[in-house]
Design a protein that fits this description.
The protein is an alpha/beta fold and 494 residues long. The chain has 17 helices and 22 strands. It has helices at residues 41-48, 71-76, 94-98, 113-127, 142-154, 172-187, 199-205, 228-236, 290-298, 320-325, 335-339, 346-351, 366-379, 396-409, 426-441, 453-459, 482-489, and strands at residues 3-12, 15-25, 30-34, 56-61, 64-65, 79-82, 160-164, 191-195, 208-213, 216-222, 254-262, 270-275, 279-284, 305-310, 313-315, 328-331, 359-360, 363-364, 414-418, 445-449, 462-467, 470-476.
């Protein structure tokens, strides 16, 4: 299948998202689509698959002008879209999710469960996936759910598969499986449109790369004929010098400390501290217990044992409300499910932890609340037409900035950041790093969980490595290396 999008223009009200985009996709190629959050990549793909109607331009499929009424029609015609934010039925089994809306039935309407199970097993075998088909989706890790979504797409006999940040939650082994699968698909003339902010992936897997900036397609060329610096320059319109900012703040006294933390299930005997003005990296493989530890500290999940200390004084945190009162903020890994109220405005999301500052006798001073939110929106350079629009209308990177604005506005003294740059483009990453630097300079203690080893090494003052629910080791900044961290993360010693 050959796809040509020519001079595509799209606006949402007064917000001009696409100003004239050209994109050509050839059979059997992996075509990387790059651009900062808000550049229009997802909007363009939603137009191709019929979710949005474009204002002007032309879409050609195999040389004929064509538009789809909705994503289902696009999928029926061979174009499948695996979204970054997965759409699953958490209470249904893996098998039921795979065949949702495409169940195989007898002439009498009976579902052919055995046949469906055999098909799923064969597909999982080809993918190297070992997930029980009878498990409920809610019990799977984010990475496992992503693999199920990829398998679901392959079942539709797609000729073009759009993958939006497909590896954001995958382990190294799962990424290797994905790349092997992509190679098998392209060998069968399936085209892959690959959207990712991970430069190393783009140069490993793609044949061509198209860069978008501010709603315009800037350039398309063979991946082998460009490099990271050139792609970044085209994405942001400038060079990104010193990608990881130097953070030379003097570290103060121990601000926050945990001792003998256990939940009785995933992790035990966890002990570490963070100083004033320090960025403490938390590393480890997916499933090691990193996120669970942070959820326990913040009071989301119950602790079986352990103590928390703030400036040497023991504190009690049994709920997120307790944590917020103590000055602890938590940017969660899943910003949409846990970090934001998507239907509420930017103003309402940003002011939520601080709402008591704007209320008196049950009445909220909306004027003060709006000024507070607008100041943070401006400071964090959130791209939006207004602080009153629903936060769900923003790009992923700008949503992440809103979550950060919420905790900065709350005056958090200890800030836990779980995968703070997941799904965020290079320009927004740099801005988040600069914000972290600014907070450290204000003596905020930052605990950063990240699966991105260059990020962990580039931004952390010290790194604690978790392996199977226990602390495997601690590495000071001057001794940090990917080899050292991975050795500890996999149960070795360095």
């Amino acid at each position: 299948m050959r796809i040509q999008l020519k001079d595509i223009v799209k606006s949402f009200g007064t917000n001009k998202v696409l100003l004239g985009v050209d994109l050509e996709i050839e059979s059997g190629e992996v075509h990387a689509l790059m651009g900062e959050n808000g550049a229009g990549k997802s909007t363009l793909m939603n137009i191709l698959t019929g979710l949005h109607k474009y204002d002007s331009g032309t879409i050609l499929i195999n040389g004929e002008e064509k538009t789809y009424a909705n994503p289902k029609e696009a999928e029926e015609n061979g174009i499948s879209f695996i979204h970054q934010e997965m759409i699953t039925w958490p209470d249904l089994t893996v098998l039921e999710n795979l065949f949702m809306g495409r169940e195989r039935k007898t002439n009498w309407g009976w579902i052919k469960t055995k046949e469906m199970r055999e098909t799923a097993r064969e597909l999982f075998k080809d993918l190297g996936v070992t997930i029980d088909l009878d498990r409920e989706m809610r019990t799977l890790s984010v990475g496992q759910q992503q693999l199920v979504e990829i398998a679901k797409s392959l079942m539709s006999n797609a000729e073009v598969i759009i993958m939006d940040e497909p590896t954001a939650a995958l382990t190294d082994r799962e990424i290797k499986v994905l790349f092997e699968t992509i190679k098998k698909l392209t060998a069968k003339n399936v085209a892959i449109i690959y959207i990712s902010h991970r430069m190393e992936e783009i140069f490993t897997i793609s044949d061509r790369v198209t860069v978008m900036r501010d709603g315009v397609s800037v350039d398309t060329q063979p991946t082998a004929q460009t490099d990271t610096d050139e792609v970044v320059r085209k994405m942001v319109g400038r060079d990104l010098e010193d990608y990881y900012p130097s953070i030379d703040t003097e570290k103060g006294n121990i601000l926050f400390e945990v001792k003998d933390l256990s939940d009785g299930k995933v992790y035990e005997n966890i002990a570490f501290h963070v100083r004033q003005g320090e960025i403490l990296g938390i590393s480890g493989l997916m499933g090691a217990g990193r996120t669970e530890i942070m959820r326990g500290i913040f009071g989301i999940d119950k602790l079986a044992s352990g103590q928390l200390f703030l400036e040497g004084e023991e504190i009690t945190v049994k709920s997120p409300a307790d944590a917020i009162r103590q000055g602890i903020g938590f940017l969660t890994e899943d910003r949409k499910a846990e970090g934001l109220i998507l239907d509420d405005s930017l103003r309402e999301n940003i002011s939520l932890p601080s709402i008591g500052e704007f209320s008196k006798k049950g009445w909220i001073n909306t004027k003060e609340e709006r000024e507070f939110a607008d100041l943070l929106i401006k400071r964090l350079t959130v791209k939006t037409v207004s602080g009153e629009v629903p936060v769900k209308t923003l790009s992923g990177g700008n949503q992440q900035k809103v979550v950060l604005a919420k905790w900065i506005g709350a005056g958090s003294r200890v800030l836990i950041l779980d995968e703070p740059t997941r799904g965020v483009d290079v320009g927004a990453k740099r801005e988040i790093y600069m914000l972290m630097k600014e907070l450290a300079e204000r003596n905020v203690g930052i605990i950063m969980v990240s699966s991105d080893l260059p990020e962990i090494i580039g931004i952390s003052d010290r790194v604690v490595v978790i392996h199977e629910g226990k602390i495997a080791g601690e590495v000071e900044k001057e001794n940090l290396s990917e080899e050292k961290i991975m050795t500890l993360a996999t149960g070795g010693y360095k």
